[in-house]
Amino acid sequence: MELLAPAGGRDAFVAAIENGADAVYVGGTSFSARQSAENFDNEQIKSAVEYAHLRDRKVYVTVNTLIDNNEFGEVLDYIFKLHNNGVDAIIVQDLGLMDAVRKTMPVVRVHASTQMTVHNSEGVNFLREQGIKRIVLARELSHNDLLTIRGETGDVELEIFVHGALCYCYSGQCLFSSIVGGRSGNRGRCAQPCRLGYDLYSGKKAARMDLEGRGRHLLSPADLCLLDYLGEIKEAGISSLKIEGRMKRPEYVAIVTRIYREVLDELQANPNYKPPAERKNDLLKIFNRNFTTGYFSPGLTPLLSTQRPNNRGVYIGRVVEQDRDFNTRIKINDQVIVGDGLDIWVKKGKGPAFVVREMFVKGQKAAEADQGDIISIKLDSRVFPGDRVFKTHDEKVLSQAMESIRSEARSRIPVNIDAYLELGRPMRLVFTDKDENEVTVSTVSTAQKAINRALDLPTLKEKLDRMGNTPFVLKNLVVHGAGEFIVPFSDINEARRRGTDILMQKRLAQRQKVKIAWDDFANHKNAYLLPSSSQRTRKLPLLNVAVSNYIQALQALKAGADRIYIGLEGLGTHRRLTENELEQLLAFGNRQIIPIIPRIRKPSDTDPTTKLVIEKISGVMVGNPGAIKWALDKGISVMADYTVNVFNQYTLNFLLNQGLVGACLSPELNFKQLQGFTNFDKVELMVHGELTLMVSQYCMLSGVLGNNGGKCEGFCRQDDYKIRDDLGYEFPVETDTDCRFYVFNSRTLCMMDDLDKIIALCPGSIRIEARRSSEQEIFTVVKLYREALNKLSNEEEPDLNWYKEELARVSGSSFTKCHYYRGVL
To answer: Residues 160-180: pLDDT tens digits?
Structure first.
């Protein structure tokens, strides 16, 4: 298995290579899902590729954001440069960009980002058929899920995360940062609202719930650590093990990479090897929010870290006492040295966090203290006996990590040199590396009889071993030829430099990819890119309504909806649509009933798409690549939901070319961006309702309210819940039949007063999102939109503000226009 490490900058890149990474993934200065990392410009990427390739390692570049229509020319030029600079693969999220690269530069190796939310065999096979060589699977898959997917897919490579930060929401499905703060995770600028504090509110009691000191970070996951499960992961047929952390310090990258490298090497020799506790302890010391096995072994460890969203460190002892001058005595159960960072957790408020600058043991000033000692430290705030102490910065571990980066010793390539000496002839040096590459160079000067001191083996070895600025290290030196000879040291040094330079070029040439000619690329690119404008035919769009159950669907139909999208996940009701209910809806006039295939459908899930649904319906709405393939293979008409992230015309065209009949565009687009689309008769726009900000595999209610070892106690069936942030915004939460957890926006999208502008775009349909709405609200909202649409189609001028006021009367929250005017960063 490949060990794939992150690098947000040059130092972290070297740390990854020098500590055993087989490959490193980095981001450029644009189109990367970690825009706030240091990242690499083109020259730095070129240098990094050379550094890695000399050492037989690989470099992947993340181009894993959604791409705007106007960015396609730039991003394709960028990928062209990446390939010609030797990058081994690019990692993409955007389906349109995937298609564009495959059409314009088919030799470029493309990996599918975890942002594509691939979580089943159908999704893997769909992307494999598009020419994708590797899929980074969703983090939410269990060991059994991985075994199933590997058994049902072809020779495509599978990659999973094994260590680092987790997202609470399925990657690629989160709109929280985008809708609330305007910083899109899909565009690489997530503000991490999941790490903020929230209070949980009961609907029945209309009051904040007491979580008994369990913490306020209700959506903040612990850090993934699968160090103990690498053997099982190998058995599941995984090709690459990915460490998360492009925002992390080089020391973090060094330590985590080294430990996983050591365990992988041990497993290679002994498949039954289990890493000792001290290895995981070193991982804890560098950074942790507690460790979890995540979804790989569900329920084995808690998923959330609700008490704090940042590094909690390692527990090392408790406060013994503190005097009135804040001199504090702490009994420790681990080593502490000057330079370590400590954090004391007090029962109320924020405790002191500090770097140890001076400490005393038994009254004597000490540079270090050992397990069992009582250390004395002067603090600047009050703590109390029994308060827990955590080490958040381990100076010794970090110093060792930095040394591994500076020395660059681990990755040096051993070279054997044979030196041939013969009187009156240049000295010949033959360099041979571990891969049997051979280079021969000679000195300019000839070997002469020594008058004073002859060139002996130790002196020659010392001269030839000066390879510090190269990736090589001298392993063996053999001198051929006897005699008291001398060769100028300057000539020896110059020959050594020429030899290593040629050897480097020979090694790089072995990994050189076929370069793409600019003219060929430019011709393909220009043929692929679309004109910037198009003619649109104004007509009345269909009025579509998305609901969760039969009763909601009936109300929408009675109020005048043209099409009903009905979810099959049982959101809120925890009950799926029945056979009888579907038949009654299908008999309701000539309106269309379109089931929404659950956007998440793991291999271990029960399948709600029954034989009846397949036989009776005219089409489905789908929200992920796997569902696209499933529906197309069944010969069913397919519409893409907004969760497919159709952010540009190229993604829309790709889907239409696959056989889809249309798509609901991303709610992250603004009016200006929408003007750049063609085929708008195939487009649906969201105009009203509560947007889903998050969908999670983990039920937060069970995690923070439960006392039954993580087993479901049915809290979602006992009450209605909201989470409230520190600004007072309340976000409703729900679960579905499969116990997945949903977070909805605090405000309702309403474009009624801009309905004329929406109609002017000429969409094929507009959509009301009514998954959580009451029967009365659905009837009123649909009826008002129906009336307004009909008047606009008759070229009347309805008072849209009046309609908006009427909508406000039945809305459960205030209104927002989301991104129609502001867009996303």
So the answer is: 999 999 999 999 999 999 999
Dig out the tokens for 283 from the structure: 């991982």
Which residues are within 8 A (CB) of 526 and not within 5 positions of it... i.e. 6 or more apart? none
CB 144 within 8 A of CB 121: no
**pLDDT value at residue 611:** 58
Which helix H or strand E contains 440, and what residues bound it?
strand 438-446
Q: Exposed, middle or buried: residue 475 (CB in 10 Å: 0-12, 13-18, 19+)?
A: middle
Tens of pLDDT, residue by residue over 782-815, are 999 999 999 998 888 999 999 999 999 999 999 9
Provide the mean pLDDT of the chain.
93
Q: Which residues of 720-737 are buried (b: 16+ CB within 10 A; e: fewer)?
A: ebbbbbeeebbbbbbbbb
* Residue 24, beta-bridge partner list: 5, 59
Count CB-CB contacts under 10 A for residue 389: 26
Dist CA 426 CA 806 (whole Å) = 96
Do the beta carbons of residue 170 and residue 138 sit within 8 Å? yes
The owner of tokens 């309609």 is 803
Q: 77 phi and psi, to 5 degrees? A: -60, -40
Cα(714)–Cα(292) distance, integer angstroms: 23
Q: Are strands 157-164 and 240-243 parallel, antiparallel or unpaired?
A: parallel
Mean pLDDT of 89-111: 97
Alpha-carbon gap, residue 777 to 72, rounded angstroms: 42
- Residues 553, 662: Cα–Cα separation, whole Å: 22
Plot region of 221 (φ>0 → left; ψ -120 to 50 → alpha; else → beta): beta
Contact present, 806 and 782 (Cβ < 8 Å):
no
Q: What is the pLDDT of residues 684-710, one digit of tens each?
A: 999 999 999 999 999 999 989 987 666
Q: Which residues pair with 637 in a beta bridge?
A: 619
Total-model pTM: 0.93
Q: Is the dihedral of CA 698, 642, 725, 209 positive or negative?
A: negative
Q: Write out the two tokens for 445.
A: 């000067």
Asked if 76 and 88 count as a contact pair (C-beta separation under 8 A), the reply is no
Distances (CA, A) of 455 to 203, 446, 447, 473, 543: 89, 13, 10, 21, 91
Sign of CA dihedral 361, 363, 364, 365: positive
b/e string for 327-359 if b means 16 or more Cβ within 10 A? ebebebebebbebbbbbbbeeeeebbebebeeb
| Residue 265: other Cβ atoms inside 10 A | 13
Please write the tens of the pLDDT for every residue from 449-488.
Answer: 988 888 999 999 999 999 988 999 999 999 998 788 999 9
Contact indicator for 715, 702 with CB cutoff of 8 Å: yes
pLDDT band at 57 (very low <50, low <70, confident <90, very high): very high
* DSSP character string of 28-95: BSSS-S-TTS--B-HHHHHHHHHHHHHTT-EEEEEE-S---GGGHHHHHHHHHHHHHTT-SEEEE--H
- Report helix, strand or coil for 596: strand
Tokens 């053999």 locate to 478
Extended beta strands in 95-218, E state: 110-112, 134-136, 157-164, 199-202, 207-208
CA dist 282 and 288 (Å) reads 10
Q: Does residue 399 have a pLDDT over 90? A: no
Q: DSSP strand E in 649-799: where?
A: 662-664, 683-689, 692-696, 721-724, 730-735, 741-744, 748-750, 765-769
